[in-house]
């Protein structure tokens, strides 16, 4: 009997100790989970989804400034590395939010880490997220700032370019009024006025053409275009000017190549290249025009024997209103928009334009376009559809 009580007592004690041990282990596990949450906090619900759909740069920081979440943009621009913000100016904004408890917005300049990388300008906004977190958002303003600068420069350049012919016409009008009794002088002033009016009309036409090329979906009626026809029209339109200066325009062998695009735009671009070659070549020199197929690209080259272009200016010559020799360009009737028109025409046709040139050795401009394949039928385009095309 005594032995039975001993066994029962031992059983009760064992169950009690087991229950107590279970409670202890459960409590320890709970405390461990709570400690783990403090050490490795989780991002509030919904933040992952928001960062995933944001086009801007997004970063979430915990109480110790560890990066819990970062968008691809933050990683790509090198703002976040090894779960830390490595751009001091961005970290400073986050620190300011912790100190004040208020959202902060500033612009940050992000220098390129490697040679050749562009400097980026970011609009950074940081704000508290709950009581422990800070969210940092950034928008890349680099491209919009560049476009604003281009627009401002374009407007300033247009204003400057328009002043010359408008001012000249105004002066010539006064001169004609004062020389009304001198037919010879009136005729001379009238001819100069016509020249300035033509220059003004040319500038206006080029501005309109360039604006159309820069608009969305500039190619409204793409069709199969024969490159040989484009070359023939470009040479023909510059034949009179070239003949007056004894400049020979030599045409290469017919290529029988075709591209898809708008014939008037391609003709305008090539006419501008040939016109430039003639204008900047010395008298009694030679200009070459030809086309060839390189892989799947049609290359239309225009070569002159002019003064050449320094290497540092090769990219800039395609900028609007950029002139190597401003005085000579104006004397030849140039508007400074011809090569910009060529560049945008090439881009709208899925191609490019390049230049090879050395001072004293002339220049070669090459218009590169994807070759057309398939149907060889071409619908002729009336010449009346062409707007003014010479620069």
Automatic annotation (TrEMBL):
Its EC number is 2.7.13.3. It holds the Pfam family HATPase_c. It is an enzyme of class 2 (transferase). InterPro entries: BphY/WalK/GraS-like, HATPase_C_sf, HATPase_dom, His_kinase_dom, HisK_dim/P_dom, HisK_dim/P_sf, Sig_transdc_His_kin-like_C. Its main location: membrane. GO terms for molecular function: calcium ion binding; phosphoprotein phosphatase activity; phosphorelay sensor kinase activity. Its cofactor is a divalent metal cation. It is found in: Cell membrane. Keywords: Kinase, Membrane, Phosphoprotein, Transferase, Two-component regulatory system. This is Sensor-like histidine kinase SenX3. It catalyses: ATP + protein L-histidine = ADP + protein N-phospho-L-histidine. One of its GO terms (biological process) is cellular response to phosphate starvation. GO terms for cellular component: plasma membrane. It comes from the Bacteria. Residues 157-373 form the Histidine kinase domain. Gene3D superfamilies: 1.10.287.130, Histidine kinase-like ATPase, C-terminal domain.
